[in-house]
Amino acid sequence: MANKLPVGILGATGIVGQRFVQMLEHHPWFEVAWLAASDRSEGRPYAEAARWKLRTPIPPAVAKMTVSPAAPDGAPKIIFAALDSSIAAELEPRFADAGCAVVSNSSALRMASDVPLVIPEVNACHVKLIETQASRRKSGGFVVTNPNCSAIGLVLALAPLDQRFGLETVMAVTMQAVSGAGYPGVASLDILGNVIPYIAKEEEKMEEETQKLLGKLNGSKIIPGAFGMSAQCNRVAVEDGHTESVSVRLKKKAQPAEIIESWNSYTAEPQKLRLPSAPDQPVLYLEANDRPQPRFDADRGAGMTTTVGRLRACKVLDWKFTVLSHNTIRGAAGAALLNAELLKAQGYLG
Ligand SMILES: NC(=O)c1ccc[n+]([C@@H]2O[C@H](COP(=O)([O-])OP(=O)(O)OC[C@H]3O[C@@H](n4cnc5c(N)ncnc54)[C@H](OP(=O)(O)O)[C@@H]3O)[C@@H](O)[C@H]2O)c1
Questions:
Q1: Nearest-5° angle of CA 77, CA 30, CA 78?
Q2: pLDDT at position 1, please?
Q3: Looking at the predicted structure, is the pLDDT value of residue 2 above 70?
């Protein structure tokens, strides 16, 4: 613990909170020192309060920890937050006002004009928005967010194309895993053998977050990406991994080999800085005509690599392809962990 920074997890008992616990177990820079959740869990040992759903056991040191009340008193100065958005809207600013760096998964503050919405491989420079937050001036605390779990995979696949060819239009249809709905999530009788063509507020989040992520920082403002964007979101009976069928129109002409090369060669800040959770290859193109598939490809790059496949010409737009990313790793806890590593590398964590 001596050389590591102590961190806390808000919402530690939930699906994303559990991923944080798992991913932080052997982290070289951070160590779990504090856990908080709702009144239901407060005061109980973590192993008893959390309905653990992961395939690795609860780290023994965390299993014994008592779940604290979700208040800043006694909490460490670095907080990973995995709260429902209605609760996050109230609690995250309270922790930031108390001087904490809040690295959030929730949608509550993602679109606020002074809150960075960050994928370190795509828009690391947006982190500077932190300096415009009132809490930063008052107490040093701030909030940084990662995107919605289906926007992350999409944007990792779009960013290399946007940088090289320019995006004009994007249409995406998702097939989203049940773990994306938290625990207990969707009732088994509703989802088994079924597809649900509605996820509350998901299409709006994908559309607006994609444009903010691919937008440009202009002084203290983000100018959203100017491409047209339409998303349709479906829940399917898959445990982990969101799959997306995507069509794009590009500003410049592109050959398939150039598109594939722009995905496979894409690296950015996290790879240059060798951040501990950064995958060597953030985007990987799979040549087999029936990949990517969640069962076989969601865990690539320890769940941090977005896989793409089935690139082909589109008769309506220019190109179509399939994207897959792990929703609770690259789409949630891993995304926040990489954001925190970027913040540390940029000197924001003291
Ligand atoms: N699942 C994903 O793939 C995913 C991906 C990206 C983003 N997210 C976002 O991450 C957040 C967490 O999602 P999840 O899937 O982990 O949800 P979840 O499984 O329902 O977990 C929610 C967590 O919040 C805690 N909580 C509930 N009410 C609280 C309160 N009043 N005060 C303090 N803590 C409270 C719960 O504690 P108790 O156990 O004590 O009730 C639990 O730890 C959400 O905003 C979600 O949209 C999820």
A1: 15
A2: 53
A3: no
Q: What is the mean pLDDT of residues 75-82?
A: 98
* 65 secondary structure, DSSP code: P
DSSP 8-class letter at 41: T
Mean pLDDT over residues 302-318, rounded? 98
Which residues contact residue 308 at a Cβ distance below 8 angstroms, ignoring those fewer than 6 apart? 157, 263, 283, 284, 285, 286, 292, 321, 322, 323, 324
Whole-structure pTM value: 0.97
Q: For ligand 1, is residue 83 a contact (CB within 6 Å)?
A: yes
**Is 233 an annotated catalytic residue?**
no
Give the residues across from 196 on adjacent strands: 235
Separation between Cα atoms, residue 58 and residue 42, nearest integer Å? 18
Q: Is-contact 158 229, C-beta < 8 A?
A: no
Joined tokens for residue 159:
């960013």
User: What is the DSSP secondary structure assignment for residue 326, as one 8-state letter?
Assistant: -
Contacts of 309 (CB under 8 A, 6+ apart): 285, 286, 287, 288, 289, 291, 292, 321, 322, 324
Q: Is the pLDDT of residue 111 over 90?
A: yes
What is the chain's mean pLDDT, rounded? 97
How close is the Cα of 34 to the center of ligand 1, in Å? 16
Of the candidates 38, 35, 132, 140, the residue with the CA atom closest to the CA atom of residue 98 = 140
C-alpha dihedral over 190, 193, 194, 200, to 10 degrees? Answer: 50
27 catalytic, yes or no? no
Is 180 near ligand 1, meaning CB less than 6 Å away?
Answer: yes
Mean pLDDT of 123-147: 97
- Residue 307 three-state SS: strand
Q: How many angstroms separate the first and last alpha carbons of the chain?
A: 16
